Amino acid sequence: MEMLRADNLAVSRGGMPVLEGLSFTLAAGQVLVLRGPNGSGKTTLLRTLAGLQPPLAGTVRCADDAIAYAAHADGLKVTLTVRENLHFWAGVYGGADIAPALAQFNLESLSERLAGSLSAGQKRRLGLARLMVTGRTIWALDEPTVSLDTASVALFAAAVRAHVASGGAAVIATHIDLGLESDVLDVAPFRANGSTVHNDFDSGSGVEFDGGFL
User: Fold this and answer.
1) Banded model confidence at residue 206, pLDDT cuts 50, 70, 90
2) What 3-state class would DSSP assign to 208?
3) What residues contact residue 93 under an 8 Å CB cut-off, 6+ apart?
């Protein structure tokens, strides 16, 4: 079953075209991995798919409220505990049970710790655990394994595997092999004429990107 379709999509950063002519579909049970050099437009594409910015041209079609987007930042409420953070996001998205998320990301023993006291890797695991309480069918993930050790990467990969096995789908920008059965979309051939590769968060662009979670 087709869950998302992009037709002749063009995306921009700071008003400048970055990618153009992108057409692809995402089906239930599919993982699509985005490849390309740093600054080639992967983040901009994910933000456009998630509805955080409009496409420059073309269309993105998917069900309303289908996409959960997780960016570079963990977006945690540092004065809340691990459990309270997940309860907060579960409430925002409809009250899903947080127990599976705690278990999947090995957070049960940390559930009463304040998020602000966690290590970088633990914060990342908590940030990714939020995906499981959204109830959304498509996960759009931007370099999700930043700060994760090998064991935690395996936990994350298992979560994605379970998500797609249950009928979900994922679009992931990553430079590492997650060991997932996936299709690959290299964005480099779709760079807009005249565009240059630079960091998506280049302060010289004049554009501020939120690094949170949707």
Assistant:
1) very low
2) coil
3) 133, 134, 135, 136
* CATH fold of 2-194: Rossmann fold (3.40.50)
Contact partners, residue 188, CB within 8 Å, separation at least 6: 35, 36, 37, 40
Mean pLDDT of 175-188: 96
Long-range contacts of residues 104-113, Cβ cutoff 8 Å, at least 24 apart: 104/129, 104/132, 104/155, 104/158, 104/159, 104/162, 105/129, 105/152, 105/155, 105/156, 105/159, 106/152, 106/155, 107/82, 110/82, 111/81, 111/82, 111/83, 112/81, 112/82, 112/83, 113/81, 113/82
pTM recorded for the entire structure: 0.89
**Domain coordinates of the chain in residue numbers?**
2-194
Query: What is the tens place of the pLDDT at every residue in 83-117?
Result: 999 999 999 998 789 999 999 999 999 999 999 99
Q: Which residue has the tokens 């807009």?
A: 192
pLDDT above 80 for 170: yes
Angle between helices 82-92 and 120-129 (to 10 degrees): 30
Q: Confidence class of residue 214 from pLDDT cuts 50, 70 and 90?
A: low
Radius of gyration of the chain (CA): 17
